[in-house]
Design goal:
This protein is an all-alpha fold. The chain has helices at about 1-20, 25-40, 50-65, 65-100, 100-115, 120-130, 135-155, 160-170, 175-210, 220-225, 230-265. Helix content is about 85%, strand content about 0%.
């Protein structure tokens, strides 16, 4: 029996390891094709730069400190907008999810508001808040606000009635009902909203830096590369954006596991 369990455990680990490696097949194949195309001279256009050229640009950007200055500026905006939007979304979503009166009074307006494309707000934001960092943070806050509000209110409204009935049997008051029953039951939906807010605010950071006044940031690195027709700088910026997005996704998943583990204790 012990040998059988050991074999099953080894097979499971082997499958998990294979699944992780399969995720690298497409990026590795794309990199190999890119290297081969530049090596064999399949195109002489300035749009196709070699991986070596992008690597040299990466080394230059890191050594000069330009990457860290741009990345720190973008992440500072992203974090500020994420926090403001998430806190606002938790409050608004909690109000809509816990108060039927608020749902009837505010819900229809919010449902209309969330259908408007995020980038449609940029002209108004630029008029109301200018074109600097404040306007960008407001824009990022809106990107984080909507998914948090939607998932918090939905999670609180969709608590299983059986849990509510059990809480009533134990004579929970309103505060105990919310803290001990409704919020724990809605936690998966709440965390999904926060996770989406983290990703959306990062994507909105790049849009805000690209569309509003140029300043320091990863989005502006792309603008500079495009204006100077430096595809090596553009590709380097795209790679950095993808890696940061991957890191934020991994961080969110780690936090999710810790929060759910803590909630079960």
């Amino acid at each position: 029996m012990a040998q059988l369990m050991a074999l099953e455990g080894g097979a499971t680990l082997s499958r998990q390891s294979a699944a992780r490696w399969r995720g690298w097949i497409l990026p590795a194949s794309a990199l190999a094709l890119w290297w081969l195309a530049s090596r064999l001279g399949w195109s002489h256009s300035g749009l196709l730069v070699s991986p070596q050229q992008v690597w040299h640009t990466a080394v230059e950007q890191i050594a000069s400190g330009a990457l860290w200055r741009a990345l720190s500026a973008s992440l500072a905006r992203e974090l500020t907008g994420f926090v403001v939007g998430t806190v606002s979304g938790l409050l608004l979503g909690g109000l809509l999810g816990l108060s039927p009166l608020a749902q009837r009074a505010i819900g229809p307006s919010f449902n209309t508001f969330k259908q408007i494309s995020l980038f449609a707000w940029i002209p108004l934001i630029s008029v109301w808040f200018g074109l600097g960092d404040l306007a960008k943070i407001v824009f990022l806050s809106l990107a984080a606000l909507i998914p948090v509000t939607v998932h918090v209110s939905t999670g609180l409204r969709n608590v299983p009635p059986s849990l509510i009935e059990v809480a009533k049997v134990f004579r929970y008051n309103r505060r105990q009902m919310i803290a001990r029953v409704m919020v724990p039951a809605a936690l998966p939906s709440i965390f999904t909203g926060i996770y989406l807010a983290l990703i959306y605010s990062w994507l909105a950071t790049l849009g805000a830096e690209y569309l509003l006044v140029a300043g320091r940031g990863i989005g502006n690195l792309l603008v500079d590369g495009s204006d100077q027709f430096r595809m090596d700088l553009v590709l380097f910026g795209v790679i950095v954006i993808g890696l940061v997005g991957w890191a934020l996704n991994a961080l969110a998943r780690v936090l999710e596991r810790h929060i759910f583990a803590a909630s079960r204790r």
